[in-house]
Amino acid sequence: MRYTVDEIAADIPSSIAIGPFGSRMKSDSYVSEGVPVVRGNNIVDGQHPEGEFVYVTEEKALELKSSMVVGGDLVFPHRGAIGKVSLIPQDATMILSSSLMKLTPNKDKCSSSFLFYFFRSKRGAYELLKNASTVGTPGIGQPLTSLKQIEIDLPPIKEQKAIAHILGTLDEKIKLNQKMNQSLEEIAKAIFRSWFMDFDPVRAKVEGRPTGLPPEISDLFPDELIDSEIGEIPKGWEVTPLQECVIEIESGRRPKGGIDKSLQQGIPSVGAESIAPAGEFDFSKVKYVSAEFAEKMKKGRVQNFDVALYKDGGKPGQFIPRVGIYGDGFPFDHFYVNEHVFLLRSEQLGQPFLYRLVSSPALLYQLIAKGSAKAAQPGLNQTEVVESTFVCPNEDAITVFNSKTRPLLERQFLLGKENEILSDLRDTLLPKLISGELRIPDTEKFLEEAGI
Predict the structure, then answer these.
(1) In this predicted structure, what is the pLDDT of residue 25?
(2) Of 4, 84, 119, 437, which has the fewest CB atoms closer than 10 Å, so is most exposed?
(3) CB–CB of 140/81 below 8 Å?
(4) Which regions of the chain carry the CATH code 3.90.220.20?
(5) In whole angstroms, what is the distance from residue 360 CA to residue 335 CA?
(6) Is the pTM of this model over 0.85?
(7) Confidence class for position 224, pLDDT limits 50, 70, 90
(8) What ranges make up the beta strands (E) of 39-99?
(9) Can you name the CATH fold of 2-154?
């Protein structure tokens, strides 16, 4: 049956409302912990609000009871990122900012999770966007009226729950893979920092303590620290510029006049906005160049385990580089980078070591200082990158690090490819399930087997 949002809202005061909180509050009203405030930047691509929250006291939250949201409520921006939606997690209590509106559904008529996926669909997003003004900051002139008038076709409640369970299971698996990917990233970073920045095994030997490493690895580290121009470093290791490590560095280019954004197929061209840690990639930002243009490019084709470095852009005096690595067919088998990205390779150092080195605080600090010193366009040239220095360990330590951490990168790429498949499956099923084109037979048995 077809309902308006007004008809499926819970029969309680302020079931559809705009948060009055936010712009009128001074920053000194926030506290370090308490009731979180949901703002527009917390409504992202996940199911629930996430990111950095600000907080108010419980007393202040009670003063703003009409803008309070609880588990099962849906929240939508009515200015700014219009078209997005987020679902408040169960057992959570939050406060809306003034840029958001909420919907408390009638649980006897509809599933909150089903509604979330409806508004995630193209039709749902269109309904949220159709009354928005694109002049200046996007906004809806009469947001509550527009929200209340949206029409939704609702299948029986059990079928709604079954649909939400199928889509939610895919989302949960994607999120689990993302967390695992982040954990693998942190593990490799911690090993690199311990071995090659903090020199923990060397310090342990100096102090007569066990290194905590297997003997064959522990033996690779010196047992003495010596003075250098950057402070104490392991004996036999040297402060070395990257250019002494047989570094290959290149960037790509774009067609004259820029990327044709209407091109929906061709050869992917990756820019600075797509550089992310291993196994992460935002496919919604993909741009393409024609096969003919790609064939003419002499440089910029991504090779297996290439390290990518964002090389220029940003506000004058504020350069913040990003580092990524691609491999094993992730995110694509065949793709290029544009002129804003450097690709780095070094057989001497190995790509896992090079990735951790370039993304380490010690090297990034040098790149930030060099890139931010430009008066007009912040950024780096090839010479500035390869003249950056680091403490170069012995070859055997580098070899062992690469052998131990390369499998972690391979696992991250595998998880990234799995998430791409899961996302494609979810995005294919979502409109078909929401519209009723694809039905779930025997929903009662399905829910029973799912434990719902």
Answers:
(1) 56
(2) 437
(3) no
(4) 2-154, 238-392
(5) 26
(6) yes
(7) very high
(8) 54-56, 68-70, 74-77, 86-87, 93-96
(9) Adenine-n6-DNA-methyltransferase TaqI; Chain A, domain 2 (3.90.220)
